[in-house]
Amino acid sequence: MQNLLYLLLSQLSDIENKGGLFDFNATLPLMALQFLALTVVLNIIFYKPVSHILDERDEYIRNSLTTASASLLKANQLTTKYENELAESRKKAQLIIKHAQQEAQVIVSERIQEAQKEAERLLADAYNQLKIQKEKALKSLEDQVDILSDQIRTKLLDI
């Protein structure tokens, strides 16, 4: 054991003596193996899960964009459909209003004609009644004139 310890110390002193910037000894392959082992470990522990999570996120974003595009397309189609239906409903409403106005105009004109006929009839009735009253008044006056003339004649004949 002492020999082994001595051998190690002697090799360490030799290393210390050589010690340059680019010593190519057994540490270089060891460092390369450490680097490769660290790369494999990092790849297994870190890079694969992170890349897997990033891939899932990309897939989720693509699915969300596809769903959003489909929803937007459907919304645009529904908007167009409802705008067309609204325009058609407005046209129908305008036609209904136009027909209702025409019917109201016809009804108003008929009632005006009826009112004019009623007014003409009332006017004719009033004229006829006035004519009858005039004739009665004239007849009454004639009768009174006859009576008065008879009275005047009798008074004149009595004198």
UniProtKB/TrEMBL annotation:
InterPro entries referenced in this protein's UniProt entry, alphabetically: ATP_synth_b, ATP_synth_B-like_membr_sf, ATP_synth_b/b'su_bac/chlpt, ATP_synthase_B_chain
Pfam families reported for this sequence: ATP-synt_B (PF00430)
Membrane-spanning intervals of the chain: 26-47
GO cellular component terms, semicolon-separated: plasma membrane; proton-transporting ATP synthase complex
Superkingdom, natural source: Eukaryota
Main location: membrane
Localization annotation: Cell membrane; Membrane
Keywords noted in UniProt: ATP synthesis, Cell membrane, CF(0), Coiled coil, Hydrogen ion transport, Ion transport, Membrane, Plastid, Transmembrane, Transmembrane helix, Transport
Residue stretches in coiled coil: 109-158
UniProt-listed SUPFAM superfamilies: F1F0 ATP synthase subunit B, membrane domain
Its membrane topology: Single-pass membrane protein
An MF annotation (GO) of this entry: proton-transporting ATP synthase activity, rotational mechanism
Function: F(1)F(0) ATP synthase produces ATP from ADP in the presence of a proton or sodium gradient. F-type ATPases consist of two structural domains, F(1) containing the extramembraneous catalytic core and F(0) containing the membrane proton channel, linked together by a central stalk and a peripheral stalk. During catalysis, ATP synthesis in the catalytic domain of F(1) is coupled via a rotary mechanism of the central stalk subunits to proton translocation.
NCBIfam families named in the record: PRK07353.1
HAMAP family documented for this protein: ATP_synth_b_bprime (MF_01398), ATP_synth_bprime (MF_01399)
Subunit structure: F-type ATPases have 2 components, F(1) - the catalytic core - and F(0) - the membrane proton channel. F(1) has five subunits: alpha(3), beta(3), gamma(1), delta(1), epsilon(1). F(0) has four main subunits: a(1), b(1), b'(1) and c(10-14). The alpha and beta chains form an alternating ring which encloses part of the gamma chain. F(1) is attached to F(0) by a central stalk formed by the gamma and epsilon chains, while a peripheral stalk is formed by the delta, b and b' chains.
The family this protein is said to belong to: Belongs to the ATPase B chain family.
Name of protein: ATP synthase CF0 subunit II
Organism, scientific name: Bornetia secundiflora
